[in-house]
Amino acid sequence: MEGLEKFFNFLIVVSSIALAAVVIYMVVTYFVRKKQTEKLKSQKRRGPDYVPKLIKIYRPSAKIIRNAVLPEPLEDGTFGRAEADLIYIDGCGIVVMSLCPVSGAVDNPKEGPWTVTNPKITVTLDNPLERTAAATRAIAALLKDEEVYNVPIYNVAVFYGRKTVFRNKSNQSLNSDSLISTLNDINRDRFLRRPEISATYNAIKKHMEKQTVEQ
User: Fold this and answer.
1) Looking at the whole model, is its pTM more than 0.90?
2) Which residues contact 67 (CB under 8 A, 6 or more apart)?
3) Of 83, 31, 59, which is closest to residue 208 (Cα–Cα)?
C-alpha cells in the first residue's frame, strides 16, 4: 500500500507540473501575440501584407495563398477567371477572402454595390462577396476534379482599415479585429488534419494561373 501511495503521489506531482507548464505556455503565448499584434497595428500604413501577417500571429500553422486566379467553370461549358485576394486553409476548411484597405462606415447589402463613407470621402465598391463567391465556386470545382472531398468553404470580405463598422451585421463582413475571432470560432470544428490541409493546398495551387504563396 505504501508503494501504491507513493506512485499516486508521484502522478499528482507530474500532473501538477504538466498543468503548470501548459498554463505558463498559454500565458506567454498570449502576451507574445498581444505584443506582435500591437506592433503590427501601430504601423502608420497598412499594406497588402497586413492581413496575412495578422493571421500568422494567431494561426501560424495555417496555409495561405495570395493573389490567386482560378478557372471558374461556366454554365456554357467554358471557363472564366475567378480571383481571390487571399485563400486561408486550416483545420476548419477553406476561407476565401476579399481584402479591402478602406476605413469608414460600410453599407454592406447582400446584393449590389457597397458604399464606404468616412469624413474625407464616400467610395462605392463592387460587392466583394460576389467576387469571393466566384472563387468559392472555382475552388469547389477544382477540388472535385482532384478528388478532394468534404472540405468546407467559406467566403468573407475583410476591411482592414483602422476604423471600420458595418451597417448590416454579417459573419461574412469582417474588420481586422473580428477576423481573428471568426477564424478561431470556425476552427473549433476540425474537418481537416495536417495531411488533408496539405492535399487541399496542393490541389488549389495546381490550378492557379499566378500565385504568391506564404506558408
Assistant:
1) no
2) 83, 85, 210, 211, 212
3) 83
Q: Please, are residues 152 and 131 in contact by the beta-carbon 8 Å criterion? A: no
Distance CA 130, CA 122 (A): 21
Residue with the three cell numbers 495536417: 194
User: Following DSSP, what letter does each residue of the chain receive, concatenated?
Assistant: -HHHHHHHHHHHHHHHHHHHHHHHHHHHHHHHHHHHHHHHHT-SS--TTHHHHHHHHH-TT-EEEEEEEEEEE-TTS-EEEEEEEEEEEETTEEEEEEEE---EEEE--SSS-EEEE-SS-EEEE--HHHHHHHHHHHHHHHHHHTT-----EEEEEEE-SSSEEESS--TTEEEHHHHHHHHHHHTTS----HHHHHHHHHHHHHT-SS-EEE-
Spell out the per-residue pLDDT of the chain, length 215, in tens: 566 666 566 567 666 676 666 566 566 565 566 677 777 777 778 888 999 999 999 999 899 999 999 998 888 888 888 999 999 999 999 999 999 998 899 999 989 999 999 988 899 999 999 989 999 999 999 999 888 888 999 999 999 988 899 999 899 999 988 999 999 999 988 889 999 999 999 999 988 864 444 44
Grid cell, residue 95, equals 476561407
